[in-house]
Here is the input.
Amino acid sequence: MTGRTSEPEDPEALLASFAPRVYGLLLRLVGRPDVAEDLMQETMLRAYRSFDTYRPEGKFRAWIFRIAVNLARDWIRRRRREPSASIEAEGDPLGRDTPAIHLPPDARMDRSQRARRVEQALARLPEADRQILLMRYYGELAFKDIARATGEPLGTVLARAHRALAKLGDLIPEDES
Amino acid sequence: MSRCPENTEWVLYAAGEVPAGRRSALEAHLAACEACRSEVATLRRGLAAMEVLDRDAPVRPEAMESLRRRLRAAADHRPARRPVVLVLWHYRWTAAAAVLVAAVVAWSLIPGPTGTIQPPAAPQATAPVAAQWMPDAQVQEEITEIAAGIELLEAGENGKLSGAKAAQTDNGSDESLDETDQMLEMLQAESDA
Here is the structure.
């Protein structure tokens, strides 16, 4: 798995460089830009407080994305417990209540259409499966690193990834791959 | 054709995370297995589907500025790393106590004049202890001084005891002291007998 080749040594600069990716992951997990921004900042602050602990061990990137995923998970759980802000009342920010876009197989989708379709497919995945794919994509983490970061066995992580990738793969016609 | 590998291994293969030593075996299987080829193609399409998402999602400039501000504030409150000298200074008394204990232990382990540490010998039944132990002149002098000191201390204690006894007699409560005197007299008589 390829990682970032050159990362800034300064903690502030390093964390700021991760911000867009962490924000992107959080946005796909919680579906709300304002919440994703707050959680991104909280992620960075928590990472900063323990910067010296994790930085020298080369686990920093995996650790940042683990913090982000955990914060998103906590937010989703809290939100589910709040009756006034239930998904049913406000609609699903991730678009799970939006009908899927069904295009004719021969239609060539532009990038934004495909992105929308992938986002919808991601939103329909079980939360744990979605987290695996997002950590890999935004964090550029190998599956074994994701397993280490999440504390799950590698086999479990791979099984989740297989299920999620198979669903995403079915979205895209073979001639577009 | 060999047995089909687990689906989870195909995930690693599609993601390019299979060790080089295993890759050739998987590719040999793929060449002969249409079902696994289809499986890998689907997984690769799934991975490719993710690529349409913007990896670096645009963060509002206000949010980035807020992040930098909060990080700077956290940096201001971050405890600086203490130099080693300061850490040692913090534990100076503990270190001093440790050195003292080590010195005492080392002193107690220093061998005697014979060069070896000898366990105390059992007293001989046929010879008195004083005959076996002949201290040199300096030690003899110290022992004499210590004995004199003990006598002085005992005299002082007796004086205090007499004073205390007098005070208790004044208070009419010298019963326990009378019992002590009687016991001492009895012990003395037994010793004389």
In short: Chain B touches chain A at residues 7-12, 14-17, 41-50, 52-60, 63-64, 66-68, 70-72, 74-75, 78 (CB under 8 Å).
